[in-house]
Each structure stands twice: as C-alpha cells, then as structure tokens.
C-alpha cells in the first residue's frame, strides 16, 4: 500500500485517466500523503470468493482462516517511522487494553505533514466531532475488527497498546482503509500450455508486482481508499495507476485497455484478506486496515496482454512467478501463498 507524496500533482491526472478509460469516478481527495514504509501485515483474515453485485456487495463462500496468534508487533516498533520519536515500550502481556497498567505513559505524536491539515487528514479532536464506528459523511470510520472502544473522545486501537498516541503519519482518527489488488495469470509456454514446476508438479502462477520507490522491495500494487470511494473502484484504480501508468497510453489503445480492465475487475474475485494491518505507522488512536482481493486472468486474454509500465508510486513493474523463494515487501508473500493455495498452484 502506498501513500504517495506526489499525490497532489497527479490526482487531476488520474481523474482524467479514469474518465478516458470510461471507469466510474467518485469523490477523491487531493494533497500529499506521507510515504509508506516497509510494514508488515501480520494477521490472517477471512478467505472468500467475492463477486461485485452492486457497488461493494459480494456473495461469499469458503471457510475462515485461523485467528491471530499473538499481539501486533510492527505496531510497537521502537522508533516511529520518519521521526526521532521513541515509543513507550509495551511488552506482549500489556498490549491488551483489558490488562490494567496504571504505569502506561505513551508518547504523543502526530507527524508535521498531518498537522498541516492536508485534505486527506482529519482535524484535531476537539475542533470537530467525528462519528466513530460508523460511516461519517464520506469517511468510513467503521472497522473490519468490529466495534472499537472510544476513550476521552479518541478511538482505541482494536489490537491494543502501541506505546504512542495521536495519529503519527496516518490521516484519520481510527481506521485508515486501504485496498490491495493481486492480479494473476498462469505461466504458459509458446503454445499456450501451462508450465508446471519441476518440484511440486503444480502449474505456476504469475502476478503483477511493483518495485516500491520508498524501500526498493517488490510488492503487490495498492493504495488508500478515498472518502466516498467504493473498495471495488480503489482496487481497479490502484492497479491502473501503479501497474499500467494509464496516462501514457495512446488514444488508439484506450478502448482496448478499458475493456480488458473492466472485464478482469468485473469477474469473480478471491478475497484473500480483510482486516487489521500490523503496520509501524499505527498508534493507539489510528491504525491501518485493508482488503486484499485476487483477480485472476484464467484465459490469459485480459490484462495479461497489456504492456506493464510503472506509475508514480512504483519504480518498476513486471509479471513475477509466484514462488515462496521470491522475497516480497511485508507479508505480501503470505497473501500470495493463500492465492496459490486457492488456485491449486505451485508455492
């Protein structure tokens, strides 16, 4: 997931690209967002088949993945990202809010970029009255984790203490929602036949990977859900934005690209994960949540044939074999493992 520091420059451009592709356009924020860091998605979520029916309504099947085995870890990293701030140390047995801990004295920190009041960030508590655990105007303040506690007019991280209060680098009080599309295809030979791995004997999947500019690691393309935006559009927009660099497309190619993107993202998707993200930017009062969805080009005639080109947030983009030996940003490898298992592919 990326917070793009250059977002204020390309928001209008992305609007144009979406319009040219004939994709639905919803209200979007503008302004700079702080750069994302190499965070980790530590927890398992539900695995479901999803197919858009109306907006972001889905039909679901399949069982549930195991629940989290322990407290968040990255959310308690000693030094807060992009700062000299050191968190108050929180041991594993004191993470849970139900554990009484009168000595708890977290550091308060909200990054200067957030305090400058960009349009993607909330004001300070006291200057407005947000509706927590609900859809608050265009901003969704509900959590995939269920109802979270609110204390002294501020939301409490549903996974417990982090050693730091305020919003840090995050714009919203409470959950900050993101979406990550995993676009896959089968690896095939010159005749179009699936290529099987020599060891596992299973067919090999490939996915669209971007090389992040902020940390140089390969990752799944993704980004933040804008206020008023449906997650299904975020998934589609982020893929077009980061993997196809839509603005560079020639006029003669736009209709073909529009059809291919709509066909893929209008197909049945596999919901890989939906929930809390163990991210070093998290605080006691602000945290990351995401939806990870796999869209598979089974026949290889959809986006598989499109030329990939890195957008503003990516240094490079290419199709990469899904394999446990390929190192990825954060826990993206785990997400791909779930996809490979679902598709009965090599891992």
UniProtKB/TrEMBL annotation:
Protein name per its UniProtKB record: ADP-ribose pyrophosphatase, mitochondrial
PROSITE patterns associated with the record: NUDIX (PS51462)
Function text: Hydrolyzes ADP-ribose (ADPR) to AMP and ribose 5'-phosphate.
Pfam families referenced in this protein's UniProt entry, alphabetically: NUDIX, NUDT9_N
Enzyme Commission number(s): 3.6.1.13
UniProt-listed SUPFAM superfamilies: Nudix
Keyword presence, Nucleotidyltransferase: no
Natural source organism: Poecilia latipinna (sailfin molly)
Domain Nudix hydrolase, residue spans: 186-342
Chain positions covered by the region annotation Disordered: 151-171
UniProt signal peptide: 1-28
Family membership: Belongs to the Nudix hydrolase family. NudF subfamily.
